[in-house]
Structure of (6-4) photolyase:
Amino acid sequence: MVAASTPRLGLILGDQLSFDLSSIQALDPQRDILLLAEVQEEASYVPHHPQKIIMIFSAMRHFAKALREHGWQVIYVELDASSNTHSLPGEVQRWQAELGASEVHFTECGEWRLEQALRSCPVAQVWHPDRRFLCSRQAFARWAAGREQLRMEQFYRSMRKRCRLLLEDDGSPLGGAWNFDRDNRKSLPRTLRGAFPARFSQDAITQAVVALVRERFASHYGKVDGFDYPVDHAQAQGLWQHFLDFGLAAFGDYQDAMAEGEPFLFHSRISAALNIGLLDLRQLCSDVETAYRQGRVPLNAAEGYIRQLIGWREYVHGIYWLRMPEYAELNTFGNQRPLPEFYWTGNTGMRCMAQAIGQTLELGYAHHIQRLMITGNFALLAGIAPAQICEWYLAVYLDAFEWVELPNTLGMVMHADGGYLGSKPYCASGRYIQRMSDHCGNCVYQVEQSLGEQACPFNALYWHFLMRHEQQLALNPRLAQVYRGLAGMDPQRREALWQRAETLLARLDAGETL
Ligand code: DLZ
């Protein structure tokens, strides 16, 4: 039997900064010790955007301080600590031995890679579920079992019922429909500007981390200056409240819109804070429902937002843990093309790409349509190797952890899972970008043209994608109309589009920008 005074050790990861984390709840501040460690391995297994490292290290340091204020004993290993082993398994073993801890407590990780490494540690282990998600790994597996096809919409409806969100008393959906997606696609009127999100100035802790990251991660792509994200629970709450007051009402209408110089529009920008544990999912859902019931926001905004939280977010989390590790290897189209250099620099004449990549490098942020329909769409059409585009998304976005990034990129963006996650590839020509943004007017390419040097590259690449995957995709009912269009196309035009796309792809293969 273990003596009552023998401490147990609890590892808190950089994306587990929640007071109600299962492992913290299971431990005793009078007896046990919590460990947080900044390690080179986590900071560099992909070239994370410098602001992502700043956010995580600063939020970890703020959380350690808050835990101490709540009476916990905390061991905090800074990146520059002399005996830092620079891996989380290394730190767990070092501190377990040093403290003579009887057991080490963990909360399920956000990445398969790290969980495997920690489970292999030769220490007595106790694992806890991550209850910050509404649907556990096991509950998702039960929901998926026996279904021929998984569809987010079905999962989302079951979650709405289970969580009793936006329902009438009889359990039917408010407004008579489960999904108001069709009311989420307005393009932005010229006179309307976004609700710029709350910004937070850097305190001494953040300033020290900024200096560290500037020195130690100088080779990572992305801007160090201008970091203004929340790094503690109070700031994250401030960002959320700002969105409830100024963003949510218009989010419903314009969540798919894109505009020049408008990196945020009516998006909340809370995903990074939520994913590292600074916000509570249940509270967010309840706040959104309250805003609707008090008449402060329309239903298409409330429903659209809640769909992101309990629909897509929980769905991709479930799929990740259901299908890893083999999911990461899928490549249905057999894509091999390397990621073009301009994804790391933004140096391209395609205005929509330059804007989306430019703001990504500057802010570590782009909203979901920019990710899906601009940078993602281009990677899909150009046949980029899934592993390379997945690594890019994981590195450059502040909210990217593999549980959310991989299904979104490999499944939704690249359709590399053959339609397991989404029912069709989200391929689109320049016409979609023209409809949903004002970028085309400032582009060096002509969106109305598909052939010739000045033609928008998305156009010929779109048809090339459909032609080269005709066998796999033509039977998909959701693409039937598109393939009818292709079948009715004049053969000479078809050949010309193919050749134009081949020229563009050859330029990519030669390392040129477009
Ligand atoms: C992303 C990240 C970074 C950059 N650094 C650390 C770190 O030094 N220490 C830590 O505990 N966690 C870090 N993280 C987050 C982990 O990589 C994260 O827990 C996994 O990505 C799983 O989601």
